[in-house]
Write a structure and sequence with these properties.
The protein is mostly helical. The protein has one domain. It is built from ten helices and no strands. The longest helix is centred in the last third of the chain and has 26 residues.
């Protein structure tokens, strides 16, 4: 029974990640908690490990269409990974109920944002990033990427949506390049965070393999069929699912 639940949680996560680029925290942990009782720190590690493989699948798809800016992606990944490792060590000392409650709130807010989103981000003029110590954007990029990594390592959110907004608003990326590059960075955040978590605490590898298999399947399917639906409908459907999952997770910690 546990194996089936992990496959389902991974599959739904892959579907949502393939459609909106969100990390597995928004679906994987809430679904597992609906049916099973697991340690928060272990689930965060498993969530990040799942993100590694799902992000890799999506990254390879976007690479085919040359929608990844490797120079900026590698630069941001360095500081994001540092934040992810630190966040992973910090999260082990946080109360389990608070971790799950925060996870639920993140899921709810992500769902509300998606449900209200009516259209794609408009492509804007591309601006070259200035790798200069005198550039305000340079230091903002370091600070924000470190912050995304810190949250990712601490809460199991590899930062898909946050990275997407960072690349669009700060670097003025076109939407396809923003998604591709954000998933590229997300891969390294998830890899660093998951390795740190599994170094600190054990998790059933067999169950994780089931979740990864489901996640990869979901990501491939969603990537193939997402374009058959209008984006507004996809946003509303995904947003509604996330709101429900987030509420269940949050209320689970409030009600004894």
């Amino acid at each position: 029974m546990e194996s089936l639940i992990f496959i389902l949680a991974g599959f739904v996560t892959g579907i949502i990640t393939g459609i909106i680029g969100a990390s597995s925290i928004v679906a994987f942990i809430p679904i597992i908690l609906l049916f099973l009782d697991y340690n928060a720190f272990s689930l965060i590690g498993a969530s990040l490990a799942l993100d590694v493989f799902v992000a890799l699948v999506v990254f390879l798809m976007y690479r085919k269409y040359h929608h990844i800016k490797f120079k900026i992606g590698i630069f941001l990944s360095i500081f994001a990974v540092i934040g992810a490792v630190i966040g992973s060590y910090v999260s082990i000392s946080l109360p389990q109920s608070e971790l799950f409650a925060i996870t639920g709130l993140i899921t709810i807010f992500t769902g509300v944002g998606l449900f209200r989103r009516k259209r794609k981000f408009k492509p804007v003029t591309k601006l070259e990033f200035n790798f200069s110590l005198k550039s305000l954007k340079f230091w903002l990029a370091i600070l924000l990427s470190f912050g995304v990594g810190l949250i990712g390592g601490g809460l199991g959110a590899a930062g898909g949506i946050s990275l997407l907004l960072l690349l669009i608003l700060l670097f003025r990326f076109e939407i396809h390049e923003a998604i591709g590059t954000s998933v590229f960075i997300m891969f390294f955040i998830a890899l660093a965070g998951s390795l740190t978590h599994f170094y600190l605490i054990n998790f059933p590898i067999t169950l994780l393999i089931f979740a990864i298999a489901g996640g990869i399947s979901g990501a491939i399917i969603s990537a193939r069929f997402a374009n058959l639906f209008k984006e507004e409908k996809l946003n509303k459907l995904a947003g509604l699912i996330l709101i429900i999952l987030g509420l269940v997770t949050f209320l689970r910690e409030l009600i004894p």
